[in-house]
Specification:
The chain is built from ten helices and no strands. The chain starts with a helix and ends with a helix.
Length: 271
């Protein structure tokens, strides 16, 4: 336990101020960071599937992921027709390249290629659009979302260690407990409530708004963690990668944001 803590500490010390800086900068700086995270996460995801004897087309997947990021960067100026045309064109290119690759399991290969783009670039990339929305509306929803996810994860871990006994979905994630899951929800609610009370969000929210955000982060965010655990369990590995010392892979650090980012972006779009 102590060894794990000290291994994780350098990344934590460097990572938190770096994330705060990137969030404050916004614009192309933040968009570039998210694009790099998506690129690395997609590579890790494809590597996980290779362990299951499925071979996605990395070139097509990465190209499509960068295209998705570009669309998010251009939001809200990107025309829907251009977006749809680009998606169809990329899918057709992916199908043709798979047809000429000569590899086994072509349906599984192209499905994982496209699925990885949707799962990582399509969902996680919503952070770019959310940060752009903050810029246009003078709010801090992106920063609040990330802080709340951190608090949710910390509370889930602490509650689980101290009082957790009964497992939630043991076959997927044997260390996650029901008490830990509830603790994460409590932490999410507390974080949104206090940040709203003290004006940190810079957008006045009602109790209903706070409860919706709590559900998105506290429930959907933790489910995002379970989904990634499912992929890792299928591949027979503990971590998605080894890039971040003591923290596993990039996908391991951002899995909770995969579901929360698009859902919070949808939420703020209705404010």
């Amino acid at each position: 336990m102590k060894s794990s803590f000290w291994n994780r500490l350098p990344i934590t010390i460097l990572g938190i101020p770096a994330i705060i800086y990137l969030l404050n900068e916004g614009g192309m700086v933040f968009a570039g960071f998210v694009t790099i995270v998506i690129f690395l996460s997609l590579i890790e995801f494809y590597s996980l599937k290779k362990k299951s004897d499925i071979y996605p087309n990395k070139f097509v997947g990465i190209f499509m992921a960068f295209s998705v990021c570009f669309i998010y960067i251009e939001y809200p100026h990107a025309h829907p027709t251009n977006i749809l045309t680009s998606i169809i064109l990329l899918i057709v290119i992916g199908l043709f390249m798979e047809m000429f690759s000569g590899r086994k399991k072509p349906i599984e290969n192209i499905s994982v290629t496209l699925g990885g783009v949707v799962y990582i670039a399509g969902l996680l990339g919503a952070m770019i659009a959310l940060r752009n929305w903050d810029t246009m509306n003078g709010s801090r929803f992106t920063m609040v979302m990330i802080f709340s996810v951190w608090i949710c994860d910390s509370c889930a871990y602490t509650f689980g260690i101290l009082w957790g006994k009964k497992k939630l979905i043991e076959r997927i994630s044997p260390n996650k407990t029901i008490v830990g899951f509830v603790g994460g929800i409590v932490g999410s609610f507390a974080s949104f409530y206090f940040m709203n009370t003290y004006g940190f969000i810079q957008y006045e929210l009602s109790l209903i708004h706070i409860l919706v955000l709590t559900f998105i982060v506290g429930v959907c965010g933790q489910l995002g963690d379970f989904v990634e655990s499912m992929f890792k369990r299928d591949a027979g590995v503990k971590d998605s990668g080894k890039l971040l010392l003591g923290h596993g892979g990039v996908l391991d650090r951002f899995d909770s944001l995969i579901f929360t980012s698009p859902l919070i972006f949808i939420f703020v779009s209705f404010l």
